[in-house]
Inverse folding.
């Protein structure tokens, strides 16, 4: 929520470079993954988890094995221990770098049978004509070619809502290539207070987290007491 | 990193003699809103999707058809065969470092398809309008522009240049694209409106009206009755206020 009197520009208008000032140089740094690891020939599902909520959901568990990373954009790439799935966790990155991050991940995206993106957004950004009374709302976006078994799980995201960033880029790239992908977007008001069962089930299904009953979120660093 | 732009053409089209309209991502998104309005009102058909690292990715369902299951992306191509107009609509800003290569490819591609000309729609900061009693619209043309004589008869105000290249403050990639069309010898008209961030829907209506006087897009009868706002304009400024604020 915004503070009373705060000027709140539509979010679509805040992420752009200032083209009027000549502040740019040609010394751009290309993003790259830290290690030159071999990319597998095939991945069953590539799961992209965006945002702090999902980061906190996953980090307390040991179901993943770190494969690669790109610290400049807080990206870490894991392999699930139990299935042939890869998990890309990313948070607090510059939106301008989104397409470049997608380029960096393309070798993994292209060999994946399915790609599932999961991201959280503030509930206040969910635009519908009715009043939202729930603590959270889950919607999805899917390419023309549906993913294997998630297509009917969540309702479609209503217009005029949109998503942006890495998940959006991956979805568009897969659409352009006629390959399946889906993005699950969770609008949530108080991420630190809510456990979202549907997301936990989804993560458990792909063996990103252990059995749902055993899951917990590590809120230690979120507590005012310890900061 | 090598920049590769992917063009997914959904329907094969012959763009010979077409006008290519490219709205720039600029202050108040006036050009883009005008593009939206034209696509929606002329019932234009999506004929292509472009994926490029130059584009900040966004995605949602078709902004012109409620309940649609068809994904929309950041950069799409819409065609109106009847009016021989094609719109390249960008829904997010370009990434500066990749912009020139992307825009050059766009111009080359359409030049190769024998388009008639390019029209760039954009906006500039309202505070840059020095003569406030004049029209809020300005135009810039290159030497090959097909509408120069017509524009003179319309008595429109030309952009005040202070040397080359053309600079439109707040106009996003419009100036860069204009320079590319000049370099590639493609006829080009750049139309912009002084605007501020806010409710820019009236600006979009006015821009379509202005454009329609140069390039006939709609029938001669009442223009505004022919304009259909797209679904994506619903809730532009949010949903109903939460109950707990009262």
């Amino acid at each position: 929520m915004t503070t009373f009197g705060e000027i709140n520009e539509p979010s679509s208008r805040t992420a752009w470079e200032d083209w009027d000032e000549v502040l740019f140089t040609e010394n751009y740094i290309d993003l790259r993954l830290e290690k030159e690891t071999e990319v597998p020939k095939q991945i069953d599902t590539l799961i992209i988890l965006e945002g702090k909520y999902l980061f906190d959901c996953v980090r307390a568990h040991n179901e993943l094995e770190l494969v690669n990373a790109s610290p400049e954009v807080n990206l870490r790439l894991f392999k699930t221990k139990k299935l042939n799935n890869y998990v890309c966790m990313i948070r607090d990155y510059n939106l301008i770098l989104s397409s470049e991050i997608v380029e960096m991940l393309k070798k993994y995206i292209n060999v994946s049978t399915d790609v599932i993106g999961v991201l959280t957004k503030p509930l206040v950004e969910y635009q519908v004509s009715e009043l939202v009374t729930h603590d959270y709302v889950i919607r999805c976006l899917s390419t023309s070619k549906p993913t294997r078994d998630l297509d009917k799980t969540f309702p479609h995201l209503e217009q005029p809502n949109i998503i942006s960033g890495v998940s959006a880029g991956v979805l568009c790239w897969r659409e352009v290539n006629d390959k399946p992908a889906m993005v699950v977007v969770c609008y949530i008001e108080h991420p630190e207070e809510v456990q979202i069962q549907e997301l936990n089930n989804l993560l458990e299904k792909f063996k990103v987290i252990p059995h749902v009953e055993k899951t917990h979120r590590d809120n230690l660093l979120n507590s005012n007491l310890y900061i | 990193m090598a920049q590769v732009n992917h063009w997914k053409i959904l329907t094969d089209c012959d763009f010979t003699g077409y006008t290519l309209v490219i709205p720039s991502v600029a202050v108040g998104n006036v050009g883009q809103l005008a593009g939206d309005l034209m696509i929606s009102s002329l019932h234009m058909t999506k004929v292509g999707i472009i994926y490029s690292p130059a584009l900040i990715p966004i995605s949602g369902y078709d902004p012109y058809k409620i309940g649609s299951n068809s994904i929309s992306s950041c950069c799409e191509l819409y065609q109106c065969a009847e009016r021989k107009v094609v719109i390249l609509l960008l829904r997010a800003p370009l990434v500066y470092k990749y912009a020139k290569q992307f825009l050059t490819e766009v111009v080359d591609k359409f030049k190769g398809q024998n388009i008639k000309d390019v029209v760039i729609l954009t906006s500039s900061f309202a505070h840059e309008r020095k003569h406030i009693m004049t029209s809020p619209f300005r135009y810039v043309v290159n030497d090959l522009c097909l509408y120069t004589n017509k524009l003179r008869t319309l008595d429109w105000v030309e952009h005040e240049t202070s040397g080359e290249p053309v600079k439109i403050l707040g106009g996003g990639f419009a100036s860069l694209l204009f320079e590319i069309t000049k370099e590639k010898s493609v006829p080009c008209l750049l139309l912009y409106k002084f605007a501020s961030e806010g409710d820019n829907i009236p600006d979009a209506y006015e821009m379509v009206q202005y454009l329609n006087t140069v390039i006939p897009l709609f029938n001669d009868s009442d223009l505004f009755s022919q304009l259909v706002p797209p679904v994506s304009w619903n809730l532009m400024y949010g949903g109903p206020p939460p109950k707990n604020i009262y």
Observations:
- Chain B touches chain A through 53 residues (CB under 8 Å).
- Residues 96-112 of chain B form the longest helix (17 residues).
